[in-house]
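<goal> How does this chain fold?
<body> The protein record starts here
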Amino acid sequence: MTGEARTPSGETGPLDGLTVLDASRVLVGPFCTMQLGDLGADVIKIERPGTGDQTRGWHPPTYGDSDESAYYVSINRNKRSITLDLTTDAGRAVFRDLAREADVVVENFRVGKMAEWDLDYPDLREENPGLVYCSLSGYGEWGPHKDRPAYDIMMQAEGGLMSITGEADGPPVRVGVALADIGAGMYATQAILAALLSRELGDGTGQKVDVSLLDGQAAWMSYMASNYFATGDPPARMGSKHPTITPYQAFETRDDYVVVACASEHIWPRFCEAIGRPDLETDERFATNADRVEHRAELDPILEAELAAYTTEEVVSRCREHDVPVSPVNDMAAVFSHPQIRARGMRQSVDHPTAGEIEMPGSPMHFSRTPATIRHHPPLLGEHTVDVLSEYGYTDADIDRLRDADAI
């Protein structure tokens, strides 16, 4: 494994010793369980025999000449894969055996499916009262829309994000990564950790966690929601601009774009100096941030004309010389060659049995003693079926019978 993360070698993660049974697919659940795996948990990924997680087939792109989907790889490291058909009686019996010893179960089937299979929290807690059981869904487990299917773009639209993303005179725009899924996956991870802590500080009893994509999007509206509650006016799309701070946006330069963030009154004079317009500092229309917001329609064309005369590199250099927050708009190549990203270990690689050395983002969670890191490659389909079942007491004959029943 390569990378420059400053983590103690040989140390285990903070969740070492915990077992997570991952019955999730696609993005929201696997993103959650990847984080738990990064933190050291033993994540056992349950996949359908023959096809596995749907994202295994989401390509191109793949790594090199292999069939390893870049999408699947991005969210399934630090896990062990077993094949198990939950539509069969034998498969469900195996799942119950594994859940009896697990600390956490994560699933994102349609609401009601796990209950139909007798694999819901009330079914499993009888034999494992300490179990933390996390269900992820589009709309949550109760409410009038709980049975609707959900995909990220729908949640970005229905949860309000697309209403405030895009240019003022343009169509609504989806954020470029699946933030509804990723956001719900992050909330699920937080909730699972909180439930585990409650179990440890309490009487050892687990609980069920219910996280939905729509709830997550509504929560992420944060100050935009507060602006609406305060005024009664729904916020409008403003492109990269900020509704209550200016200048705080992207500007077109002679060769590209640059982002400037004058987030305090102390920065504005320095910015005026950086672009050679000290007269703007003394212009009473722009004296304070409130003034600049009020006169945004007059200020924006002035700044746009000024910055269009420079290259992005020139604006960045001038602003940094004057301690003005500034950044180019980096693409993926620039992000993952960024010296700070490299220094923080955020570009990592791991050996893969069919794809060779593959690269991926590292974990953003840094610990002084128990590192979150990439310990294992994203698993091949069913790579660990025999190993895991053997650990749980299944004999070779038992495993053969499961194969004959098409349960694994």
Q: What stands out?
A: The radius of gyration is 25 Å. Residues 1-9 have pLDDT under 50 and may be disordered. The first strand starts at residue 19 and ends at 23. Residues 253 and 312 are 6 Å apart (CA to CA).
